[in-house]
Each structure stands twice: as structure tokens, then as C-alpha cells.
Amino acid sequence: MKVIVSGLTASGKSSVSKDIASNLGIDYFSASSKLKEILPKKDFEVWESKKGIDAVKFRLKYPQYDKKLDSFISSLFKKRSNLVMDSWVAAWKIKDKNIIKIYIKADEKTRALRVGVRDRLSVKQALAFMREKDRLTQQIYKNIYGIEIDIDFTPFDLVIDSSNLDLKDTIKLCLDFIHKQKKVKF
User: Fold this and answer.
1) Which residues of 43-69 are buried (b: 16+ CB within 10 A; e: fewer)?
2) What are 17-62's pLDDT values in tens digits?
3) Which pTM does this prediction carry?
4) Domains in the chain, start-ordered, CATH in brackets?
């Protein structure tokens, strides 16, 4: 079984993806981690930092790195029969109807609080970095593919707003949905 979980910064896509993979006993893949490997600029730990924003600006200027990642992801999905991935754009790019595609939303304040806790930033700092990262990343995918990742939810089987949910509840909603899709063989 294959699952793609998408969402903006700190929506919960990575945490949810890891837990879904663990619950289903299948591999997890982080598109963001792979992108960090592909980029020649490796002098940052988190995207929501000055150096992280510089790396996103670099991606905007040199889209071949995102295209290389997207090509890798497409190839990976063709090779693997069981995989859970978190990715900003794979749900739009991979047209396989057998893949369960989940989008996790959260309001800006909730996401900024999450970034602040995760990266030990003030909420004000987290909000500024997050807004800049999201704006630039949205522009990257609009430029390359014409996709408006913050507006177009048509590829998704499930859209969840995690603003008022804890991680456990968000994961439960996703797993319940996956089980009901009958795309899972246990």
C-alpha cells in the first residue's frame, strides 16, 4: 500500500506519516530529507532558519533540484509496493489512483506554535520563518508545475484540519480512513 501525506510547514505531515508507516509496518520516506541530500547548500539543520530560507531561495532560483527530487520520488513509487511518504508536491505529480493521498491543514498560529516548540524559537520568529518558507515554496511549485499547493486539494482522498486536534487524534483519523479505503491488505 502507498500513502502520500502533504501539507504546509508544521501541519503535521511528517509526524503523521512516520506514525502511519509504523502502524502499518511499512517504510517511511521523507521528501524533505532527500531534498536536503540533493541540494549543494547543506549548511542548515532546519528550513525555518536564516540558512534554511537561503536554501529555499536557492531552490527558487535553481529549480532543477526540485525536479531531480520529483523524478526520484516518481521512480521510488514505481519500485515500491509499500511506502508512506511525506511530500509537499508528490500528490499532484503521481497520478496512481491506488495511492491514498492525505492533506493535513492547520491554521497559521497553530503551525507557528509547533515550529517554535520544535525549533526552539519564539512564536514571532517561527511565524516569520514559516511565512517566508511557505511563500517561497508555494512559488517554487507554482513556477515549476503550475500547482497552487495551498489552494488546490483535488488530488486528495482526505483533507484534515489539525488545528484543534492533537497528533494522536490526527493519526487516528488518518488510519481509520486508510482502513476504510480497502486498499490495505492485512
Assistant:
1) ebeebbbeebbebbeebeeeeebbeeb
2) 999 999 999 999 999 999 999 998 777 777 877 888 899 999 999 9
3) 0.92
4) 2-180 (3.40.50.300)
